[in-house]
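Appendix B.2, paired examples.
Example (i):
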Amino acid sequence: MTSLKQSPPASSGSAPAAALHGGIGDPRTLILRNLRQSGIYIAFVGIVLLFAILTDGVLLSPGNITNIVLQYSYILVLAIGMVILIIAGHIDLSVGSVVALTGAVSAVLVIQQGYPWWVGVAAALAVGVAVGAWHGFWVAYVGMPAFIVTLAGMLLFRGLTLQVLDNVSLSPFPSEYQKVASGFLNGLIGGQGYDAFTLLIAAIAVIGYAVSVFRTRLARIRYQQSVESFPLFVTRVLLVGAVVMYFAWQLAHARGLPIVLIILAVLVIAYGLMTKNTVFGRQVYAIGGNLSAATLSGVKVRKVNFWIFVNMGLLAGTAGVIYSSRSNGAQPAAGNMFELDAIAAAFIGGAAVAGGVGTVVGAMVGGLIMAVMSNGMQLMGIDQSTQSVVKGLVLLLAVAFDIYNKRRAGATR
């Protein structure tokens, strides 16, 4: 058996010095190699600036930034699970129907039958896990393609949603349930005309990000992997920090820190660490990168595939709670086309069509690009049909860019 773990080189004593003096490798090669990862951030900044100009600054107003967070948080939650599936070489077409079903179950328990709000949340998550286990069984242990299994699930769980709701909408949820997606934390430590707590949390997040990426850089150098030059690295960290603090400043001048943003941040951090720093995460990448090699290396492919679908179901249940809380009710048509938005977020964020490539952070950026485009076009009064055309073209270009990168990489070998 071979191991998935890498062994450090015999000599790595110059790693810290290399980290501070520009890294390893030819600058042009490093830029080309990291274009796919860094390009998405450049594109995101460019799109934000474009729509900020086209909307006369309304896009970046405190109230509108808060609305973007509240309106698209459930898509970002779905994108986390979707990118993990895509990395492993799978896909899930049923998440929109699962969002509808979990929200419907929660609404029946809380609104119709009068159970406490947390019972509805727990039931929605449990239904999501059950759905994920259902998909995982057929894909992992029966061997059916995920595309077919989840396509059937899309129809199956949409039909169950109609039956659970008896083809009618249910509302409203109690105020405690509504706070999941519409509540805010503010005024905890004061602030004159702004919420200081929001700024404090953002500052802690920026510091944590800077420490994390610097440690990652040192680790890559110890293993003699290519890294960007130190000035470019510092510029990237400062740019990310500036964007986060500006975002927090706007939130602090609106209604404070949204509870749903805290939920999303916890999920991003947890899944980011899981995919990068755990054996399970490395196995997911191994399966998507080379299934035969992963199997020969001792990866329990069926088990891993089963649990990533269970995880997708759990996150779909979470998105169902957030969406039903945001809309203050459950509707038979809830979650329509959510799966396409989640898939688009993953691919725009750098996931590869063939699997083995992608990151949680990249999927978040891809989802934010979709959110900013949608919100910006709505502010400009562009009709829904044109918005769909633009989103489709962006997704097409993202996948085309992935294919172009692969062909270029193959030509340079």
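Example (ii):
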Amino acid sequence: MKRLLIILHDLSAGGAEKMMARLAGALVEAGNDVTLLMLTGGGVNVALLDPRVKQVALNSPRSASAVPALARFLRHNRFDAQLAALTHVNVVAIAAAALSGTLTRLHVSERNAFSRDKHVNPSLRVRLAYWLAPLLYRLIPNPVICVSRGVARDLVETTIARDRDVTIADNPVLDNDFLQRTPGRPTHPWLLDKRTPVIVAVGRLAAQKGFDTLIEALARLQDRRVRLLIFGEGGLRTELLEQAARLDVAGRVELPGYTPDPMAQIAAADCFVLSSRFEGSPNALVEALSTGTPVVSTRCPYGPQEILEDGAVAPLVPVDDAEALAQAISIEMAQPRMRHYPSRISAAARYMSGRAVQTYLVALLGEQRS
């Protein structure tokens, strides 16, 4: 049994946080002693943690100020491997590991397209972390774990990181028995009482997710009965609702907020759409495939091309092209629902916890670089 540590800022409602909670459980299931440490603490995804995962919260007011406390924790609690996630947390973890003498055990991970994600948060501290990270990635003894080939390639092509500075591990998105599980009951009235076709999307209400393009695509559909549900929270709620009103589709668009069971909503829908401008490895897309629901995605960097096998599994359309998105949605919804069901399930199966956790164990416990 190996002692493993996962380091996060908290377990809020983001995709990376959700995957780290799932990874912690999968590592426990694989026979390891796992601790999940939060620099700040709390968040809705705490509910996803396997009860066998030990929890530690440093309760720091900010991630950056947690370095001394994290260094003390690492010095007094020796782990076989330490894994940090998200760029600003990676920088904190590298500093703490260097101070505690545990740098050889530390692994950091990138969950998104680095060249795009660094422009999202205007905070000076976050921007400084993105400036420092590539330099640190060249100096640390273990390669950066990336969630897709695209994320790894982006890091190498747009920073000073080298090919030998990166490796890849899959997200543990799905339970091993996902095929045997019956989808949960949807919560929204449009899905409970299906009177018209419904499109579902899931994600933060942020520019990255391209929901403005999706609403415009809805307005271009010839079938004026089609409705759109976007599950998620974020700062663009008001702007998206105002856009829907301008396009005269306000009565066909709702933003119900965060859902703890997105797969239940997607399974009851007629189509799932990923309209993102960039991603790392979109977990919602994998979850959608696992339900068998028809899927349409943008060909955004990075992730959808790998997951959808360059369009062989489901349509890929250009980013920010509302007309192409509308056409792809219309075609998918006009086809028999089960037409490409086997290929969707097969593509999703790559991201079962049992398979994905092995890619992490190789990355965490394999031979270190010389």
